[in-house]
Design a protein that fits this description.
- The protein is an alpha/beta fold.
- It is built from 27 helices and 13 strands.
- The protein folds into five domains: 119 residues, no CATH class; 168 residues, P-loop containing nucleotide triphosphate hydrolases (Rossmann fold, 3-Layer(aba) Sandwich), CATH 3.40.50.300; 74 residues, Helicase, Ruva Protein, domain 3; 158 residues, P-loop containing nucleotide triphosphate hydrolases (Rossmann fold); 76 residues, Orthogonal Bundle (Helicase, Ruva Protein, domain 3), CATH 1.10.8.
- The strands form three sheets. A six-stranded mixed β-sheet has the order 1-3-4-5-2-6, with helices on both faces. A five-stranded parallel β-sheet has the order 8-9-10-7-11, sandwiched between helices.
- Belongs to the AAA ATPase family.
- This is Transitional endoplasmic reticulum ATPase.
- InterPro entries: AAA+_ATPase, ATPase_AAA_core, ATPase_AAA_CS, P-loop_NTPase.
Length: 642
Amino acid sequence: MKDAILSTARDCPPLLIGCGVGFGLGSALHLQNIRLIVAVIACVGVALVLHYRIPLARRLMAMATVVMLVVALGHGSLHTTAILGAGAALWMTVRAGYRRYRRERASAPPGRSPSSAQSSATQRDAGQVSAQHAYSLDDRVLRARFGFDAITGMADVKARLLNVAREILTHPEQARNGILLSGEPGNGKTMFAEALAGELGIPFFSISYQDIASKWINETPERVKAAFAQAARLRQAVFLIDEMDGFIKSRSDQTHSMDRDLTNTMLTEMVRLRGTSIVLVAATNDIAWLDVAAIREGRFDFNVEVPPPDLPAREAILKRSVGKALGPNALDQSALRSLAGRWAGFSAARLMAVGPQLADMRTEGLFGKGPVSFDIAMQAMRRIQGSKGQLPEGVKAIDEIIMPDGSRDDLKRLTRRLKNVHRMEQLGGALPRGVLFYGPPGTGKTQAAMALAKTSDWAFLKTTGAELLGSHAAWNKLYREAKNLRPCILLIDEADDVLGDRRLSSVAPLTNRILASIDGADGRVPDVLVIAVTNHPEALDQAVLRGGRLEQKIRFEVPSREVLAAYIRIHLKRKAGETFAISRHTVECLIAGLAGCSIADTDTALQRVIDEAVARHIDDGSTTITTADVRAALSTLAVSNV
């Protein structure tokens, strides 16, 4: 009923105009009776056609004109023809209007009547005017809650933004506009935009893709026009388009015309906004996601990267976050300085999460009252990260690994340094940037690295030289993950594949990238320890072994005969259990056969001995491990000592 009333009201202007023209024409031509009625009907039909831009408009207008001329000429013999012609014109007009009304009703989004859709269609040439009436964004125009004083540190970013914004506001006639903020998620791009508005004392108007996106065809571009129309009505403002990559995707990668239409609309509206005192700011996590036409000069004249918080900013964020959650001075000052230093590269959002996480830990009874220590804060960060990497279950302790006593002592000292890094740094100590584990195959180098991570409670990531060679982006991805999981041990097994002599290597660029990450040429990253494992240290590039890279070396050897004998007695008895008896002669035979072998080979041989004994037990019920079992196991391993 409502739509019918609105439709009738919408038809009044063309009806009145048509009637007026028809009666005026009839009076001028002295038409009477049926001729006057026909003339009025014809004029009304023409008015409706012109008002609604109905398809077949030319045909209807021609028919109505012919009818009017016939009637006006007064050919009485054509009265019937005139009436039929006028009736046909009226019928076609009503039919076309009704079909258009049905289409509008079917395509109108919920909450919008066909009348509003029709109004939008008739005002297509004035798109911004139509859009601003259809979509209200007044609630998105706010007064900024803070200025740059609320952001500690980041002086370069603040100065750059302020200078650019003042230039846009002071000299709009230069038509330079558009600030593109880029940086990793959580670094505060939206906060910087609002703080800029607060610093300038002008309104802050922001939209995101979620605010504008619609499931209806052509609805999203119309909302974009409405947003820019809203911005244009403001005398001065900071206009932020958050999640810009949702609006302007690379058109080379798109397959849907709606995405291209949205991109084109955005580019057009951005150009229209130039020359005004509206500071246009867009935020994206990665410029590479944007269409190249959007990031050129003339669209965005100023590119500003928002990096992770610098040291003063990290200290302020941690102090504010922990203080809000646990009270002022809840974080030990020396711990605050150390944490802020080693958490370089973490986003502002992650640092802000430390306070609430500490509050949860205190509620759970994990620590009591008093200042929060360094170790407790590190535990909170590990909870926030939610992962410790790839450390498997059942990792051996350092004392369980068979290795020379001197090497074991070196490994234990390194473990103590990792566990007490805060105290060590207070006393002037430092962790090595990289460690080399080298020695014959199967001597426990990889196990030692995992034991080191488990004992020190560091995250653990592992790769091999072959995996790094398989993808040019593998190292960058892995090192980025290690930085995200700090503190983290990053193990490169078979490192000679990627760290070999560059004079003879075909992968020198990859070697250079790895070395740059280790020695901090791309920026020193604390709490990432790279451990390279190799069986052939002589094959490594000499630059790999210098100070500042793999500066600490730990050698792994095959066990001595005495150590191996003790290992065999203990582990063979453990594997045999209560089922099998073991003679002394059998043990001595096994020790002699495995002399000079690694622990990995020894473990395999012991398992094969048990397998042989189990097979005989199934066949004949035997419960004794014999020298025949030993010889069969050793022959399978191609050991020739027996």
